[in-house]
Amino acid sequence: MAGYLTSYVGLFAPHDADVPPVTSIEIPLIQRDYAQGRTDGRVPDIRARFLDVLHDALTSGTKVGLDFVYGDVEGGTLRPLDGQQRLTTLFLLHWYLGHRAEQINDRQPWMSFSYATRPSARLFCRRLAMAAPPPDVTDPAEWIVDQSWYLYVWKHDPTIQAMLVMINAIHERFRDCNALVAWERLVSADDPAISFQLLPIDEMGSGEELYIKMNSRGKPLTAFENFKARFEREISWASEQATAFDHRVDGPWSDILWRYRGNDNIVDDAFMRYLAFITDVCEWRLGRIPNADSSENRALRLFGAEGADATASLSFLFHAFDTWADADINEEFRRLFTFTHTAAAAEDQPLLLFGTDRNVNLFDACCRNYDTNSKARFNYGRTLLLLAILLNRANPADGFPRRLRVLRNLIEASESEFRPNRLPALVADVQRIIVDGSLDEIKGFNRAQAEDEQAKWAFLDRHPALATALFRLEDHYLLRGSLQAFELDAETFEHRAAAFETLMASSAHWRDLTGSLLAAGDYARHRNDRDLQFGSPSNGEPWRNLLTGTTRANLANTAKALGTVLDAVAAGTSVDVSLREIREAFVEARAQEENFDWRYHLVRYAAMREGPSGIYASVGGAMGYQICMLNKTQMNGRHRDPYLTALVREAHAFGVSEPVFIGGYPESYRWLTLPKSGTALRNATHGFILRPPPQEEFLDAFRRFCTDFGVDERLNLAIPQRLRGGRKVDTEDRVRAGARLLRSLLAAGL
């Protein structure tokens, strides 16, 4: 049996010898109930849109094609496996318009329409075909229910109730039209206004196989079932492409998406998600910010507005689908991307992607997860990478792997730039990078990262042999493409990159590293006017916050200290020994100078570098003797005074718990309270301050202690200091002095 273009009435007309006649239509048992008349969910809106399409076809002279109807014709009976919904609506439309136009005087062939799903639906269709409502009826459904042949039990049949809803919806849409003109266009033998392609099953495989592939029984009517007809009508201005769309959407494009179908074995949702991606990208490329309307409505406006913009957008849409037609899509993306860090990071190797989504097939991920209004499952970064792939497939470039790597680096550094209003600029940047191979005039991505990409590109032009080392460093999970904390020096770069990988492979060396870096220089970054970011002994994110996200100029001190440590590690025989030697040399030099500043204390005492966040809150943004070591990023959480923490450890005061504080400011008083007497001490800029015990029984012992230990009348125990660089700096180890004070207090019975 050959497929052919026909109309609903045309199904029943005589055909050539190779096309068997259709004398009746029967909706088979395997089909679902009639769904286009439902009243739940989005169905009313979809129904209204479909009737708009039919109304325009019958009243405005614009013909519409309703895609394919698949079915089996046996003994003159067509049993549709796909197209049931459209055929039922067309049956009801013929019944309504035929009687409105007073063109039905006796039984006609197209009335042989029934349902095998339920006896009640079958009987209703038979009775309805014979019913003749008056042309001026105001409520056709109510008129039907009032007829003597209408059975009360039919109110429980969902198909019958849906047909009644559809009949009234048809009446609402068509009651003001010229019924005779509409009828003549509907039943025209030579030029019907509404047509479809009938494809018999024997060309498509067995009925069961086709049903498994095409059926969506039990699901609400999808937007896709009606969107295609509206879309084809809207792009009718592009005549050849409109025809091509009609053939592709149910042919090659469905075959592409079939590989990525959902558990329901339909591709409708996948198509609409990918179309939403294409629509968004096209609007961004035109400099527009998508509004809050549905992606379907925006697509109809975008592609349906004849002009240069719509022409370019429609070309991109066709390319976005056609490019995958003959491709092994999974293999294409496996060749491009990986989530596994490999020893070889050459340009001919898959590019490492970061993130929790482990699906490297971005086309598949887009078809499953794309959502204009939520980027939780397919984010802006993945969107821009997929766009890059499509752009390069349209205009392949020899340097594409390097350009794609640059784009990945920019995406990773630009999380704060990913806002809807910035997408047009970001998409324009992708065009410049991928198509033009240019990093000039980058406006959407993080500017500091764009400048660094230019610096790295120039560096590799001069030293191409260092590409592998540089790419491996870019692929480090803490850096993710950002190398601003590394000096681009050809003599040191390779061994420093290797040393960094060794140091940061796990957190085993991080506590020692925080001290060694500080010994090499004041490497911290200011987070704000109060807080400074150092490395963390246990968490990776603080290291990323320290080493990335700003310009090379802002990271000059960090880069210098890091380079010193990496050189020492690279030259040494043991990481632990190299790190220890850096710290010991610094501590010894400061002790000889009697320069016991804050850096000395943090390097000397590991307890002062235990904060998981790596953040220290200071007074006025200057590290000194009044600082707080934060567990998290805010001081309203748990934090410690690093000096008090260290002196408790140094004193081996097992009866005294380490002080933990919640809330407050760096200027606030943080007291270490002794559990027995309630006597307390705190750290101050000039030394330590005591607070007497609240209970009278301990006061005499406290006074004797103050006299014997040299505590003055204001309960201050000063640490000797001298001016250095305009600031007073201790000339003895404050932590040791504090530990002696604590041990003596406990020994005095306090």
Mean pLDDT: 89
Major β-sheet annotation: 6 strands, mixed
Q: Give the low-pLDDT segments.
A: 203-221
Q: Provide the number of structural domains.
A: 5
Class of secondary structure makeup: alpha+beta
Strands across the major sheet, in which order?
A: 1-6-3-4-2-5
**How many beta-strand runs?**
20
Shape annotation: elongated
Radius of gyration: 38 Å
| Amino-to-carboxy terminus distance | 103 Å
Share of residues in helices: 40-55%
Strand content: 5-15%
Q: How many alpha or pi helices?
A: 29
Give me some keywords for this one:
single chain; 750 residues; alpha+beta; six-stranded mixed beta sheet; six-stranded antiparallel beta sheet
Tell me what the structure shows.
The chain is built from 29 helices and 20 strands. By secondary structure, it is of the alpha+beta class. The chain folds into 5 domains: 220 residues, no CATH class; 88 residues, no CATH class; 155 residues, no CATH class; 168 residues, no CATH class; 78 residues, no CATH class. Strand 16 and strand 17 form a beta hairpin. The longest helix is centred in the C-terminal third of the chain and has 19 residues.
SSE blueprint:
Layout: E1 4-6, E2 24-27, H1 43-59, E3 64-74, E4 77-82, H2 84-100, E5 113-115, H3 119-130, H4 140-145, H5 158-174, H6 179-187, E6 194-200, H7 207-214, H8 224-234, H9 239-249, H10 252-258, H11 268-285, H12 295-304, H13 308-322, H14 329-336, E7 337-338, E8 351-352, H15 362-369, H16 380-394, H17 400-412, H18 423-436, H19 447-462, H20 467-474, H21 493-504, H22 510-520, E9 525-526, E10 531-533, H23 541-547, H24 556-571, H25 575-593, H26 598-604, E11 615-619, E12 622-630, E13 638-640, H27 642-651, E14 661-662, E15 671-673, E16 680-684, E17 687-691, H28 699-709, E18 716-718, E19 721-724, E20 727-730, H29 734-747
